[in-house]
Structure formats: structure tokens, C-alpha cells
Design a protein that fits this description.
single chain; mainly alpha; 2 domains; elongated
Length: about 200
């Protein structure tokens, strides 16, 4: 129990430290001091600073997708509605976990080639794994041209990514509940638009 608590303290301190400063400026001494553990313990669990950083990134995605998939409505096989649920839950989770969200933004801005390579592996692993869950049994019969589903998917996900990006910039200082309500309204409007143009 004590071991779990100490490791958890390290993880919390790591998220906070890397969320506030870029990777190179974060000292492992500062992290272990904030976690109230020995430096040896950090290296015992995570080997080195880079591995700790990337482990945190992997854990961050686990936290986000845990929120996304809790009681996910898989009985609804509508392609666009599933994607809508994924986006709204993912965004809501990032809004809830502010420190993790700030940490992930900094990781994505890190220009170190070795870290970027490993970060992309983790990112792609999570996205492929979880997008597969969402779309492995959607109702393809609803589409006017199911043979173009890959192109449709790319178009729709790119559109939603841009919507969320613009929403983040515009409503960054809003109350979480109100901001998410605004995003949900806009996403629903686009879902209806896509259904109208891509479904039979």
C-alpha cells in the first residue's frame, strides 16, 4: 500500500511539473522533492527521466479513454453518433483533468526527435486500439457509398478536430459546463449535416 502511494505521488508530481514547464527545464530533483520520495525510487520505477515522461504520456491516454469508455453506448451502431460521443467524452475528460491536458499539450510541442518518435508510437497505439473499438461493428448499411468509408472517416475526423481546436481557443476561459454545452450543440449540428449528405 505504501509502495503504491509513493509511486502515485511521483506520477502526480510528474504530471504537474511537466505541465508547467518544458521537458528540458524540469529537474528530477524537483519532482522527487514535490513527491516527497527519494531520487532512487524514481529511477527504480521508471529507469530515467525520458522513460518517466513517456510513461506519464501513456498513463494520460489511459485516464482519458477510461472516461470515454465508461458505459459507452455500443448498442448505438450509428457511425456519426458514436464518433460524436467519442469526441464529446474525450474533450470533457480533458476539461476535467486540467493538469493532464496541460501536460499532453506540452508533450505534443516537444521537438526532441527521440521523444517525438516514442510519443507518436504511444499516440498511434491508443488511437488505433480505441478507434477500432468504436467502429468495428458500426452500421455500414446506412451509407450511400460504403466503399468510400475510409475517405469519409478522414474527412469527418479532420472536420471535428478543427471544430474542437477552434472551440478550445474561443471558450478557454468559459465555465466547463457551458463551454461543453456549446461544443455539443455545434457537434450535433455537424452530425446531422454529415448524415444528410453521406447516408441514404
Amino acid at each position: 500500500m505504501k509502495e503504491y502511494r509513493l509511486k502515485n505521488n511521483l506520477i502526480k508530481a510528474g504530471f504537474k511539473a511537466f505541465a508547467q514547464q518544458e521537458y528540458k527545464k524540469v529537474s528530477t530533483n524537483d519532482i522527487v522533492s514535490a513527491a516527497n520520495v527519494s531520487k532512487g525510487l524514481l529511477f527504480h520505477y521508471f529507469n530515467n527521466k525520458e522513460n518517466f515522461y513517456l510513461t506519464l504520456y501513456d498513463l494520460a491516454w489511459n485516464v482519458i479513454y477510461r472516461d470515454v469508455f465508461e458505459a459507452f453506448p455500443f448498442d448505438n451502431r450509428d457511425f456519426f453518433e458514436r464518433l460524436q460521443t467519442l469526441i464529446l467524452r474525450k474533450t470533457g475528460s480533458l476539461q476535467k483533468h486540467k493538469t493532464i491536458a496541460a501536460f499532453m499539450k506540452r508533450v505534443h510541442m516537444n521537438s526532441d526527435k527521440a521523444i517525438t518518435k516514442q510519443r507518436l508510437k504511444i499516440y498511434n497505439h491508443h488511437n488505433q486500439k480505441h478507434y477500432k473499438k468504436i467502429f468495428e461493428d458500426y452500421d455500414s448499411t446506412a451509407f450511400r457509398h460504403p466503399e468510400h468509408i475510409e475517405e469519409i472517416f478522414k474527412t469527418v475526423t479532420w472536420s471535428f478536430s478543427r471544430i474542437v481546436h477552434e472551440w478550445e481557443k474561443q471558450y478557454v476561459d468559459y465555465d466547463n459546463t457551458e463551454a461543453l454545452r456549446i461544443l455539443e450543440t455545434e457537434i450535433r449540428q455537424y452530425v446531422e449535416f454529415f448524415k444528410k449528405h453521406f447516408y441514404k
